[in-house]
Design goal:
By secondary structure, this protein is mainly alpha-helical. It has seven helices and no strands. It has helices spanning 2-11, 17-20, 28-41, 53-60, 69-79, 89-101, 104-115.
């Protein structure tokens, strides 16, 4: 695949090889889904620092883009919390805080609510 894409890129200068993702890489939604699936696979994963969640999830979860539609929607909901559109520290901290207020099931219900169109309000002090 990489050789074919590189050959096309040589002939068509406007072709952006990086957009094809020729190596195994997660999309932003795939990364969000992998974090959720990784946390769902073992409750003790939540005990790790949220800063390492994406890295551990990438290593542990294969092909998150093939996960069911519920997980895809939850991944989109998680990404909706990010200003950058990626799983960043703020997103992981928001999910960690939600799990601290409720349990994992409560955090999933919260994400499901976001996909159902519940409004998100930011508290300003």
């Amino acid at each position: 695949m990489l050789c074919v894409a590189a050959g096309v890129a040589d002939r068509v200068p406007a072709f952006d090889l990086t957009q094809v993702r020729p190596s195994r890489a997660h999309t932003e939604r795939g990364e969000a889904v992998s974090v959720l699936l990784w946390l769902d696979s073992d409750p003790e994963h939540a005990d790790k620092s949220p800063i390492v969640w994406p890295e551990f999830a990438r290593d542990a979860i294969s092909y998150p883009d093939r996960a069911g539609s519920v997980w895809q929607q939850r991944g989109e909901a998680l990404l909706s919390l990010s200003a950058s559109g990626s799983v960043d520290m703020a997103v992981c901290n928001a999910l960690d805080a939600r799990m601290g207020e409720a349990d994992w099931a409560g955090a999933l219900a919260w994400l499901d609510g976001l996909t159902a169109g519940e409004r998100r309000l930011s508290v300003v002090r």
